[in-house]
Amino acid sequence: MEVGCKVCGSVTRITKAHKDYTRLARKPNTPYICDKCGAWIQFQMQNQQGLRKTP
Ligand SMILES: [Zn+2]
After folding, report:
1. CB of 9 closer than 8 Å to CB of 15
2. Which residue ranges make up each domain of the chain?
3. Fewer CB atoms inside 10 A, N or C side of the chain?
């Protein structure tokens, strides 16, 4: 199954082994975010949390 990343738009081919495969197979309209963008978003969120902690 091929899915397009909602953030960068790159098309990724995922197999049944992929963690999001079942979700996307059942609900194809739900957004998919590739590993690269997922890691980037997580990094940004951690940065924001870090900024909040530091006065
Ligand atoms: Zn992406």
Report:
1. no
2. 2-53
3. C
